[in-house]
Design a protein that fits this description.
This protein is mainly alpha-helical. It has one domain. The protein is built from six helices and no strands. Helix 2 packs antiparallel against helix 3 and helix 4 packs antiparallel against helix 5. The longest helix has 27 residues, at 103-129.
Length: 131
């Protein structure tokens, strides 16, 4: 149980840091950020998606990502009823990161997605036992 709590809190802090980074760095360099992301993507459909949709809308995408990460951080760090939903949403977000990154990002985000889903499943199991 201690590992799970630590993992959840660490993920919440990770999203808080991500939201701050998106707001104060990526937003100022959003087009360059997404151009570099497209260059590093190793799946051709992901590269095309980034070039066609993310690069031309880089500021809006960055703002939405910052808001999404801030929302996940608040939900997870609040330790309330929304933690499981936030973990699932974060797992999906991590899958998107795995599909749009390079090989190293694919592995890292894939592992992070698995951790999100495992933690969410454990929360479901805990709530089922408490009923």
């Amino acid at each position: 149980m201690a590992f799970r709590k630590t993992a959840e809190l660490s993920i919440g802090v990770l999203y808080a840091i991500g939201a701050v980074h998106q707001t104060f760095y990526t937003l100022r360099h959003s087009e360059q950020f997404y151009v570099e992301m497209a260059d590093q993507a190793w799946l051709p459909p992901a590269q095309a998606f980034i070039e066609r949709f993310l690069v031309p809308n880089s500021v809006a995408v960055t703002v939405l990502v910052a808001l999404f990460e801030a929302t996940l951080a608040v939900a997870i760090l609040s330790r309330g009823a929304a933690v499981r939903a936030a973990l699932i949403a974060g797992g999906v977000f991590s899958i998107v990161g795995a599909l749009t990154g390079g090989p190293v990002e694919t592995i890292g985000y894939g592992l992070l997605a698995a951790l999100h889903f495992w933690l969410a499943a454990k929360r479901r199991d805990d709530s089922a036992e408490n009923q």
